[in-house]
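Re: the pair you flagged

First of the two:
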Amino acid sequence: MNPERWRKVEALFHAALERAPEVRPAYLDGACSADADLRRQVELLLSQAEQAGSFLEIPAVEDLTVTATTAGSLLDRQVGPYRIVSPLGVGGMGEVYRAHDSKLGRDVAIKTLPAEFARDPERLARFRREARTLASLNHPNIAAIYGLEESGDVDCLVLELVEGDTLSGPLPLDKALEYARQVAEALEAAHEKGIVHRDLKPNNVKVTPQGRVKVLDFGLAKAIWGPEENQDLSQLATVTNVETVAGHILGTPPYMSPEQARARDVDKRTDIWAFGCLLYELLTGKRAFQGETLKDTIAAVLEREPDWQALPAKTPAKIRELLRQCLQKDAGRRLQTIADARGTIEMAQRGWSRWRVATVTAAALALLAAGALWVLKPKPATAVRAEFSRVTSQPGVEWFPSLSPDGKWLVYAADSGVSNRHIYLQSVNGQNPLDLTRDSTANDDQPAFSPDGERIAFRSSRDGGGIFVMGRTGEAVRRVTRAGFNPSWSPDGTQLAFATDGVAIYPQNNGGELWTVTVNTGETRRLLDRDATLPSWSPHNQRIAFTLWRGGPAKGGVWTIPVKGGIATPVTNDPSREWNPVWSPDGKYLYFVSDRGGSMNLWRVAIDEVSGKTVAEPEPITTPAAYLAHPSLSADGKRIAYSSVLITANIQQLTLDTSSIATKGDPAWVTTGSRLWSQPDPSPDGEWVVFYSLTQPEGPLYVSHPDGTGLRQVTNDMAINRVPRWSPDSKWIVSISDRSGPMALWKIRPDGSELRQLTERGGGFYPTWSPDGSRIAAAIGGIEGRDTAVWIFDPNRPWKQQNAEALPDWPQGHFTPTSWSADGEYLAGMEADSESNGSNGSTGIATYSLRSQKYEKLTNFGQWPAWFPDNRHVLFVADGKAFFAVDTQSKQVRKIFSVARDVIGPPRLTRDGTKAYYSRRVTESDIWLMTLK
């Protein structure tokens, strides 16, 4: 379409738009006369204006040289299996039609590509490469790309047809946050695959009649036009109507990031900017950046702030701060991951109703509405103002910060850019960290500044592992202990407290002991012999606070014990997960991490340092973190460093070659998004996969088809369920549950019916079905006065009628079965020495012969074995980083799959052994600094 023709179409479009819909046909009859194609183009524009079409939908100005399709109308034409039914819209890149798929019996959207594609083989080839990547996006909040069709003189893109309205504001706060959260999940899924939208705006987001958000046209701007087509809009002459700019510009001016408007390289932070614009518009009904001309709009994007006063008064402070972070003009200072935005929104969704009803004065609420960040206190008149700043923003994990006593320096552990974790020193106001352990090939972690700031204690895996000490800048490294995690200095700097088991971000069943060691001599002393982690020495040498596992799944509690030893005293005692205690410098408060407010965030409680008794109720210290960990205070108590952690855990499927016991291809995601899924098990009939929700909420069982479709919740009470396992006939699911109080084994039908308790107070852990479904092996305690042992029982009889059979004890400690061989002859399980605890302390893989009643050790490492159907090979995971296969006859071990930074969970095999299902946890963590005012 030449420029003169386009100007005529545009003029008629605006003239018709000014008239009432009922008189437009008569107007077009006269204006278009016998030019049917002209009328068609105008009607398509009018249709698009009414339906808010998707990609680059506004007409292009003359100097952008848009080429529309030259094929004429496609109405009633057949393009491959698709019959064109009706027009949907038109834009700078072509036309959009509704079409019917005769093969699958569904309607789709057909988007024509510019005719210039057919004349440019290189561009078409590039588009096909990009389209393959875009087609890999599989997420419920992303409109799918089905394929590319070529028919004669027309190239068409086949897209999911999304019914519903495009987004517009203002919306009620709860609805605006829910829609924004779904948009963030879509962006998160795309960014994980390296795909940037580049043109996110309300008109590219639809809401289906069911309330599901669908983001349209992911990555099409780059796929179609390519980055070389960008123009520096900051240098364009004035254009009267901003709404006439589109075409080859990769984006829409009011939603463009500053770097996009200047035609600079863009990355996922451009989408984060556009997301901020979108959220602002949903809340206010106004564009964040708007001008009468293109030049005015670009000037607003580059130079001006949005009207923050336009935000509704009820907008939570966290959302206000999120908007400011998203709309930072310097991309380096902008929010770095959309997952952080999603986490903040989820926290606001869960917590705002509680904050709103808290006893806070009207003056404090007014300040919150003005955008200030506050530490909320339970008493009406108290509020402490604080500022937050991000100190690190590298990919991967930066965590376990420790502030120097003067609050000016930070030491932390990170895996950025190296294969093993190192320890870094960085100014709290700087950007250039110093690698203190750059010469180490071991994992160095959990650093802690000494009280005088001259030394750093840390955990290292070097030379068998233990606690080490080095100088402030990494010199003079020396070993202090040959075991231990999470060191904490005594106030005089002469001793360290440590635990024999470590915790990173999951307070759970850890079996560590609590010890102290004299730094100079290495002399050790045990304070507590049970389940203690994460010690913190009080500032006046009175007590040591620590996390104690209390017997429930993944529930930590905060306790203290006198430095000289004695009786431990609880600090918290409720169902929440509470962990990672840190003393305030004056000893009057104990800070800790808790999910009692709905998300894992910072709390503190007033405490008597001498007795360990609390003197008030805990109070929240709310931060912008979706999941907070590892708080550290400066010596004056005015600065708090912490890890802001983003965790996702989804289910993956890995294809295996059973003849060679090797992997085939890359793993495929079964689930996506921000929920934390764990412990999948495929049904023997191949129809379903069962798993449980680790959080949000915690504990329900779910099933889905192997491709992730058909997700359905099985349990819906308050019980926490763990380790679900299908019966061999696929008719039952057995799992660990606290439904009746103490942990026990329960079974349930996959449709949620016929819930039954199998074991009683003795519990029952890691249930393992026999191949015929007549027996279950599980670790159960309290039977016949014995400690926990492996018992085999009949899952089809009440517990009081059982005649359970006990396996002989493992000579060196414990044996926990996790898989029964297909021939019914063997159990495979984890073995641990008498000093270890459960799967966390596994020291290898072993088998038990039901025929000979003898054990055989296979490996000195690994957890969670699963039998292949050949009854010879066993698959297992080691340290959450790799899958191994061991030949039970030759005892040869081979690594068959591994990950770098992620953590993979226990593998479970399909009946034919060709698929392995497991959870994959991805952790990102940055260091933030809170400065109290």
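Second of the two:
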Amino acid sequence: MTAPAASPGMSDPRGMLTAEMSGRASSPVLVGRDEQMAALDAALSSVRQGGPAAVLLGGEAGVGKSRLVGDFAAGAGARILVGGCLQLGTDGLPFAPFTAVLRHLVHEMGADAVAAMLPGRTTRGLARLLPELGEPEAESGTGPVAAPITVPLTAPITGGDPGEARARLFEEVLSALEHLARHSPVVLVIEDAHWADRSSRDLLTFLIGNQRAIRGLLIIVTFRSDELHRTHPLRPMLAALDRIDWVERVELPRLTRDDTAELGLRILGRELAADLADALYRRTEGNPLFVETLLCCDGDGELSRELPESLRDLLLDGVRRLPADTQEVLRMASAGGQAIGHWLLAAVTGLDDDALSAALRPAVTGNVLRLTADGYAFRHELIREAVHDDLLPGEHGRLHGRFAEAIDAAPTLVPPGRAAIEVAHHWFSAHDSVWALIGAWRAAAQAGRAVAPAERLSLLSRVLELWDQVTDAADRIGADHARVLAESVGAALDAGEYERGVALADAALRELDPATEPVRVAQLLDDRGHCSLNLGRKEYLDDVGAALALVPADAPAVRIPILLNAARCMPVGSTEYSYAEEALALARQTGDLASEANALLTLAMFRAGAGHASAADSEPIGLIAQARAMAERAGAHDLLVKAAVNESHLLEGAGEHELAAAAARRGMAGGDERYLARAWSDLLVINQVESLSALGRWDEAIGVADAARYRMLSPLHRCELRVLSGRIALARGEVQAAAEAATTAAGLLRGAPYKDERHLPLGVLEILVAATTGAAATIQTAARVIDAYDLSGSGPRYVWPTLVAAAGACLAGAGDGSGEAAVLAGRLRTIAEKLEVFGPVQHASRLTFAAALGPVLGSAFGPALDAGLGGGSDDGGSAWDEVAAAWGALGEPYPRAQALLRAAEAVLSGGDRDGAAGRLRQALDLATRLGATPLAEQVALAARRAGLDRGNARGFGLTGRELEVLRLVAVGRSNRDIAAELFISPKTASVHVSNILGKLGVASRGEAAAKARTILT
């Protein structure tokens, strides 16, 4: 029996069963779920209004999650897409629920219509899950098991960049859902997420994180909460999703006693006597499945029989009442999973259509099985589990072997893309070591094509575990043990399992001789070096160097990637530059345009220098332009995005903030056509937020950050974004939000290898947050940050801001008499004297550092630092004026306003009141426009202390109290905030504000705030 049930023109042999289905053991209405149904209705209402919404629906097995979602879907008036996770032991079917959704769409709309929903009408990504959308991967049917064969797989399991392919797949799923939701609301239901494979969990997290970009999409996820043990892989995902503000967690409890009685009434059609209702509730404990099962078994409704010893026995009781031949077919079906196709079940049982239908009819009528689109499903997974667990050991292995044989002989008996992994599962469950090994190797290849590295690694690990049990394992799969280890290293690297990758590489290298197999050894060394680099271990340097020494120049396809990797990760010096040049030369010799573009991008970063500063018309930017043009010709979309990342990064380092933001936006704008690799698109978001923050366009920066915050898969990228958002929050006076951002970022960064662009900005935020609690805490935090990282070995682009923040801590604590500020200042001076300066941003930072440290250490900076400081040693305002001018030239309003305040304070100490007033006026204007409330208050306080506001205030007839209210109005405080700060009632604050508006002759609080800038200075 080889034909699938869905084949065109084939009659459905299950049709005769449809009319005989009985609803005897099911309630016609949903009972006791009003609150949970209301939550789903509210989520859908939010989606209809254009907002994002997702519901995580948990509950124990049998409590009615699927029934609740089914009843909700029936009345939702929306397109319903349902995908269920499959229980395949430890194998996991990559992306199983999403494959089911896509298959439904293709059957409903056709492959061409699905392709039309995607940018460029290309389905390169989705075809990895559904061969109907492209060239299907060839299934490797092997014929009868009685004739064991070898399964050569000498080609690599995966090709291309798995990260880019995975990103393309995720983006295409998102695009398809977005297209569907444009026309009417869409409800995506992912059932049984407790069985979800890692790839499905990653994609689900990605989709929920991107819901803000899709109007009209509701996502519902169901899972068994009673199965989530402490180490269950779903728990971290649920915890992460719980933090998203549009995600609601809903728990479905057992029924109450009254609800249980009502359910009994609905099932039996008559009200239960009180003692009968009590007995029903006591025996079932309010689990709806058990209520239905017990009432089904006790058809008379009297509950006269004793409850079976266990719930499993209760579930089996209904099965045992069926005819013997029906029970036999059900036992066979239980080995096939919760749902099974008609033709597959026919092949396994050996029954013809009539005999199979006759055997199944009592199971359908008795509500043990239900009909599906192409076969059958157990009414509940708990029933299937009970039947399967009741199999005898020999029967268990024999049945799984029959399933494996049937699918291996005719892969079309299961949906496309599933044969290899289902065969692997069944052979493993059958305890057949030979075929379990062969099946796992094939399934690993399928997982590689589906860009599911975690599942691929699991299957390759099974091959390794079974290796010693199969004497001719290498001949069976056409690959030696070292090859399996090498494939496992690549899977571990792609899955982020770096420790495991190192261990696997060590094992593989022990089996290979570099003298006879230099290329294989070099590739393993390179992969092990990647793993070590991600773990922050310096051993990666030895591995990369050894790999280069082994690979000959006549193997450019292998040597070029290793050269570029060496160029990017070797310490700054002369060798990494020569590596990039050699890679460029080899790429040009072989006509490899993509590698040539990649090499040019690498060279551009080197020529920009260690300080990462480069002007818009510089040679590095020109090299990036060349690389971009070459990548366009090669169709290397990932390199186009990489070019945008590098360009925006270099421009930002050079202080070209507007150009940097524009470059990042351009890179993002091509995302639909280019399928941005998620890692690169995240970097474009980070670069854009960084540039907008520097320009003082904080609302815009926060908007970009919020839109991307939840969709970032990498914890390290989320860390960088949180730090940038925390800096803005702190500048606006949102201290608690800034502190939480610092704590969250530190958690995301925990265990990651040191990188100055991640760790040092976090250190700066921690110092600035500490500054809100006092000078002593600030100095301690600054000292901790300086001690934690080797600033002498870090890039000046990130070290200078760290020194500036630490110098500010010294300045704040200079007068406390402890001497700690002077000690820290001396350490900072030593670091600064050896630190280079690249570009105007770092020059402005050095000026700020010297001006802040001057009052602490005097002018004794040393010649290396004094050179180029200008007025850094002046005890008047000239040093801070130079700082303000430097930041003003760069278009950075916030540090300019801070410098103007310092300059005003300095000239006031010399008696120059007019000079101070002008500087304070500028600072207040900048701070007010930015919404930098703490800075605006500091400016106002400085003006008040110097008596600079009194004459102006008297000119408008403002009283002292009104002046205090005006200061708070100027920084955006509400009447309630003003009342709290001045210890008056909100009504009194409102009266003061009205009087101020009248005296100033303005009509609004905004106009009053604008005039306050003149009055208060």
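The mean pLDDT is 82.

-B.
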